[in-house]
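Let us practice reading a record.
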Amino acid sequence: MLETLHRIVQSVNAASDFREALEIIVERVAEATEGDVCSVYLLEGDGEHLRLMATRGLNVDAVGQVRLPLTEGLVGLVAQREESINLNDADRHPRFRYFPETGEERFHSFLGVPVIHYQSRLGVLVVQRQARERFTDAEVAFLVTMAAQLAGVMAHARVRGELTDGAEVARGGPLGLDGIGGASGLAIGEGHVMTGAANLESIPDRRVRDADAEAAAFAAALTAAREDIRALAARMEGQVPAAEQQLFDVYLQMLDGDSLRERVHAHIRDGHWAPFAVRLTIAEHSRRFEAMDDAYLRERASDLRDVGRRLLTRLLALEEQDQTLPEQTILVGEEVSASQLVEIPTDRLAGVVSAGGSANSHIAILARALGVPAVMGVRELPVHGLHGRALIVDGYRGRVEVDPAPALRDEYQRLVEEEAALTAELAEIAGEPAQTPDGHCINLYVNTGLAAEIERALEIGCAGVGLHRTEFPFMISTRFPGESEQVEDYRAVLQAFAPLPVTLRTLDIGGDKPLPYFPTHDDNPFLGWRGVRMTLDHPEIFLTQLRAMLRASAGLDNLRVMFPMITRVEEADQAAALVRRARDELTEEGVETAAPAVGAMVEVPAAVYQAESLARRLDFLSIGSNDLAQYLLAVDRNNSRVASIYDELHPAVLRAVAEVAAAGRRLDTPVTICGSMAGEPAVAPLLLAMGMEGLSMSSGRLLRVKRVLRTIPYSTARSMLDAVLVCETPGEVRRLINAEMDRYGLGGLIRAGR
């Protein structure tokens, strides 16, 4: 059964679209179980009805026509109970319902299993036989396993817009989608889906406005692919055996063949986008090769797929060159990447929508840094059905509106204008201190990493930079930046803010920030080789960066160096020693620099409980609340499936933050916080009351936080903190602090005024 399952999964993954995948499943499962019938029913968007979507054994005309509520029939009972039902006399069961159009009256045995994807009910997989005999335990186990595989296929199809909701989007029907607010704010714009790498299986379909233009693009890609292969063949001549050299001739024959070209043109005429037409054609031809008896010919299927990938690479390159970004671009993706985000000019990027991720995934943090609203973890997101559609992004509620009705669009337009008015009003306090009405002050720093953030931070005023993410130039490069390149980057930020302090965090890669040219291959990257663990293991990388930081600070003397992911005091000692060594080396070379303040990020539980030991060794501590919450709650902050239990207002997180602040006060060591918690206006009074020296946040949040601190007295903040620290749930904490915000007329700073 395991080998059978493996073969079915392979075939399903090679299917050109969701409908074909369903057909493969019902055919192969019926064969594997020796069932007379295999059918798939999908749950409709209302969550109350199931529809027959594929069958082998029932009347094929019933596909798409048979629809039943969950309260009726055995199939409905399976979905309702969310458990398997195995019967040898299904027609005698009280919930049995006969559908004449299916012709199922002659089938007596029934095995139905629910299709569930991470607690989300998607449908039912059914096998039936004429004989009155129960299915065996092995057959039940096989069908349950197959249903789990089908759940992944269905969830992926929904994301790709191949299910009903995606079709509604393609027709232009209004649709509301719920996710998680990743960056607050509102945006109205047009969806833009970046195609990404040339992966045959992941190429989506798009509506075609001009079939002739698609055919011309394909012809150009065909010519370019031929030239690529000829050039590759010439370069490899004499370097590989003659038999291997012939492979290039095979590739050229495939590209020159009428069959491939004619089938792609036929699919384009049927209304498919050229890249998708290539995907369909390659899938069709590959299946024919794989079905052949001759082993040599079967191997040609992989060659054909390679040819297809080359064509797609060329087609997608042409697509990127020809496309014009909307004035208000809403970047949409299954997993939006940092490189995709920075490819959109900041004057056109209006918002971000991602099927994956959570409120504190790397992309959400970047969106906050850029001041654009983001909605993450939209599980039902029909990604490729949203390209070119009118979208509204509500980062406060975690809501995406697709092709909104005029009345809804007008309402959001009013809210956008209100936000603009609030932003203009907040600008009036840009030069004022972050001081409570009863005289308590705190420093408000900014987090930076992109050039756009520096300019914005200087406009609104701040106490300096509490966190500069140095890894961004490493992430968008194809190699490690050299020392001089790094000096240039660091000098720009140090000089821009001088004489204010600038905290440069040393390289923090790993986890959700891998480098393509320096793979780590960790099974669990968040518990693996990341942050200071990696840099201490590679002093040649670490020392280059430290030397660049120190050289960049010459004559400015506003540098602070911060080490990420400190879990042991020995790591802090070793990292600080390398800073001294780098400075000594530069002194020997005639480069005089001031000794920078050095500190550590507190972002793992071990550092919380050794905060005093770290404070004795270092000049400052800075709490990274995003990772601290992740490790305390054992929740991957990038995983949308568990995003609902990731919460920085969890009492355990708040108490840990308070404990670190108390340790700093006892040793007179400044403690700041640079995670997303620092930029939450409603949380700012709590952090002030804990005794933080400063809060570091994205520049777009600073004036909102300042308004709260200038409005709520320190005495009230202390009372809020006392009440919060005895709360038992995040919900209690949120209700308490939101009530105080409303009492002081500050509710509009944390949610849209609806």
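A brief commentary: The radius of gyration is 30 Å.
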